[in-house]
C-alpha cells in the first residue's frame, strides 16, 4: 500500500492503495467518482477515458503509481471547460445516448479531439473516436454531435 | 411462469384493471393499476380502502412542486421506454412534459407485463403491450383531477378542460394539478377511461428527446455497477474453463494475502462450480481471483469444439429435421435439375452480447429479508430465483430495477444464473451488501451466446425466375429447451426462436418446407437481439437477392413481385425505401454498389438500402436508407435513433472478429481484442430513417433494425465482387 496525492477535477485528493491499482478503480472505488466506466479493463473500449495531463487516456490501464502530478479531469467536471460544455450540450441536443454507459468516454474523447482539431473531418473523427466502443452503436449521432459542437465553438 | 392468452388478457385489462388511489403524506397523488383484485369488487364498484402504507407500486405521483413522477414498468437499457411510456401517460393526463420525471419500477405484481403476466423486457413488446395500459392510467388520473376541480368550482367536469398540468373551468377558473392532487385522490376512480382521439395527442407522435440524456452525459447517472453502499463488498468468481466443470481443489493462500480480500469459497454455478472471492474493492477481488490456483475436474463434461460442431451441423443439415412449416408439395424441390436449382449452405457462429456495462447484481441479505439492485430484463424470474436461494418468499426480496448499460437479451436469462450466483454469495456474506461483478472476460467466455447455426437451403427456380420450391433445414441449439419458456415456444420439437424469419416469411413461395434440428451442445445459449431473425433474414434476403440477380431483375421490383399481396406493412416499407433511396441509388460513384434487404419481425416491417464500397478489404458503409412501418410511432425521434444505431449493432455478425469459437471445450476469445463488435469506422457514416405514416397499433423498434443490415451489405458486396458470402463472420472481403 502506498499513498498518492492526486489532482482530480481541480481538487487535491489523497489515496492509500496498492501501487498497481488502475486509476479507473481508484476513481470509482476510493474517490467514489463513478462517471468513468469499466468496460473491458484492457484499454480496448474507451469507456474509462479521462483526461490525464490534458490527454485522453484509458484509465483502466494506467496504474495509479504512474499518474504523478498530472491533473486528472473526468466527465463530472468536463462542463467547466468551454469545449466540454459545448460537447455535452450537443450530445443532449442531438439525443445521442441510448444505454449511455459508454458516453462518458465518448464525450471525453470528443472533447480531446475538438481541443486539438477544432474543425474535424470525418477521418479525424474516426481516428480520434476509433477506440471508443458503443455497443448500442450510436455512432451516427456521435458524428453529428461532434460537428454541431465544432460549429457552435467556431 | 404463467402464460396469459390474449383473450384472458382482454379480461384482465378491460374488466379487472382498476386504479388504487391514495393521498401521500406530502399531499401527492398516487395512482396505481392493479390487475390482481377480485373481479366482483370492480364490477360492484366497491371502494378500495386506501392502503395505510403507500404502495411502492405506483405509476403516477403528482408532487407539491408540480413535478410529475411516472413509474416505468420496464428496464431501460437504451431502448428509450423510460421516455416513451411516460409520454403516453402524460399525453392522456395532459401533464406539463417539462415537469415529468421518470423512474424505473421495482419488481412487483403491478408492474408485470399486461400480456405476459411476467415483469420483463423482450420481443420488442414494451410499447405494444403497455400502450393501452399507460393511456388508461393517464386518462383516469386526468379525470380525477378534473372531477376535483369541478367539485371545487361547482361546475360539471364536462365544462372543464386541461392543458399542461392545469385544469381550466368555464368561468376562467384555473388550478394546477399539484394544488388539486389531494382532492383528486379522494375522487372515485372512473370505471371507464375516456381516451383522447389520437388527433388530440400533444406528445404521442412528436419527436421528444430522452429524459435520461443529461444524467448520461455528465456522469451522474448511477448504473447498477456504480452503486455503493456503506460496508459493501465486491465479489468476482473463478469460473470453470469448460462449461459445467467442477472445482476439484483450490489453493487460496496467495489470494487471502491480498489486502482487502475477505473471503474465498466454492460456490455452485448454474453449470458446474466456481470459487468466489469477496473483497472490499473490485481490484482486490480480481487480483485475488487471478492468484487463485484452482484444479478443475473436467472428466464429466463434454468439450465442444467449433470445427467438430460445423461438421456435425452440416451433416445434420443434409437430413430433414422436425417440420416447422410445410406448404405445397414437399417433394417438388426434387424435380428441379442442377441448372434451375440453387443449393446454399450458411454458417453462423456463436455470438456474445457483450453489453457495455458488465453483468452485475448487488444483494443485501439479513436473514429474513433481502434487497437487490440489478439491471434485469426479467425481474420476476430473478426476484424469485434470489428468494429461492435465500430461502425467502419473493415478496421478501425487494428488487430495485437499475438502469442497465445495454443488454440485447443478455439480461433476460431464464435460469437467472447471475442472480443466483449473487444470492449464493450474499447468503454467505450476510449482513453486508455484496456486488457480484462479471469481468469482461467472464462475459465473453461465460456462454449464453446466440446459438451457432447452419442453414441449408435448396431452391427450385421457375421459368419466370421466381422461386417455386424451397426446402430449408436449420440446425442450431434450442434456446428455450429445458427452461420455463419451452412449453410456450417449442412446438412439435421445433423451437420457434430458431425458425422465426423463415416460417413466417412474407414471400409467396408455392412449395415451401422448413425443418429444424436442435442438437444438444455443452454451451449455454440465449436470445440475442432479434433472436432468430438476424440469421434467418440473412439467409432469406441474400438468397432472394441472388434470385433477383439471376433473373436479371431489379432487387426492389423482384421483391415486390414476390411479397404476398396482403403483406401491407412490408410493401409500404419497400415502397417508401425505394422512393427515398432512388436518388442516390441511381447516381452511385464508381466502386460503390447498393444493397437491398427487407424483413418483417415483431410486427414491424423494415426495408433498407445501403451504399457500400470496399476499403482496406472491409465493407465501407457510406449511407443507409431505412423505411419502417411500426404502426403509430409513439416517439419518432426515438424510433429514428433506434434504427440508426440498431442497424450498426446488426453489423456485429459481419465483423472480422465477430465470432465466439471453442477449441477443446474452451472459448478462444477473452475480451474486445478477440471478439470485436462494430466501432465507429465499421458503422454506417449516415443513416436516414423514414417512418410509414400509420394510425395502427404500435409495434416495437428495439429488434427490427437488426436483421436487415447484414444481408443488405452482403448483397451490395456481391454486386461489387461477384462473391456471395454465406459464412459469417465476414473474415475477408
Explain this structure to me?
The complex is a heterodimer of chains A (154) and B (733). Chain A is an alpha+beta fold and 154 residues long. Chain A folds into 2 domains: 2-76, Roll (Ubiquitin-like (UB roll)), CATH 3.10.20.30; 78-153, Orthogonal Bundle (DNA polymerase, domain 1). Chain A contains 5 helices and 5 strands. In chain A, the strands form 2 sheets. A 3-stranded antiparallel β-sheet of chain A has the order 4-3-5, with helices on one face. A two-stranded antiparallel sheet of chain A has the order 1-2. The radius of gyration of chain A is 15 Å and the shape is globular. Chain A starts with a strand and ends with a helix. Chain B is an alpha+beta fold. Chain B has 3 domains: 6-216, Aldehyde oxidase/xanthine dehydrogenase, molybdopterin binding domain (Aldehyde Oxidoreductase, domain 4, 2-Layer Sandwich); 224-300 and 359-437, Aldehyde oxidase/xanthine dehydrogenase, molybdopterin binding domain (Aldehyde Oxidoreductase, domain 4, 2-Layer Sandwich), CATH 3.30.365; 318-350 and 449-721, Aldehyde oxidase/xanthine dehydrogenase, molybdopterin binding domain (Aldehyde Oxidoreductase, domain 4). In chain B, 29% of the residues lie in helices and 23% in strands. A 7-stranded mixed β-sheet of chain B has the order 11-12-9-19-16-17-18, sandwiched between helices. A 5-stranded mixed β-sheet of chain B has the order 1-2-3-4-5. A 5-stranded mixed β-sheet of chain B has the order 14-24-21-20-15, sandwiched between helices. The radius of gyration of chain B is 27 Å and the shape is globular. In chain B, 57% of the residues are buried. The model of chain B is unreliable at 1-57 (pLDDT under 50). The interface between A and B is large, with 60 and 63 residues.
Topology record:
The complex is a heterodimer of chains A (154) and B (733).
Chain A (H helix, E strand, L loop, with lengths): L1 E7 L2 E7 L5 H8 L18 E4 L2 E4 L13 E2 L8 H12 L9 H14 L5 H8 L9 H15 L1
Antiparallel strand pairs in A: 1-2, 3-4, 3-5
Chain B lengths: L5 H11 L1 E6 L5 E6 L4 H5 L16 E3 L5 E5 L8 H13 L6 E5 L21 H28 L7 E3 L2 E3 L5 E3 H9 L27 H5 L15 E6 L7 E6 L1 H5 L3 E8 L4 E7 L2 H10 L1 E5 L8 H12 L4 E6 L13 E8 L11 E6 L4 E5 L4 H12 L6 E5 L15 H13 L4 E4 L2 H6 L7 E9 L5 E10 L9 H4 E2 L2 E2 H4 L11 E7 L15 H18 L4 H8 L5 H18 L7 E9 L2 E12 L2 E12 L6 H15 L11 E2 L2 E2 L19 E5 L13 H17 L12
Helix pairs in contact in B: 3-4, 4-5, 10-11, 15-19, 18-19
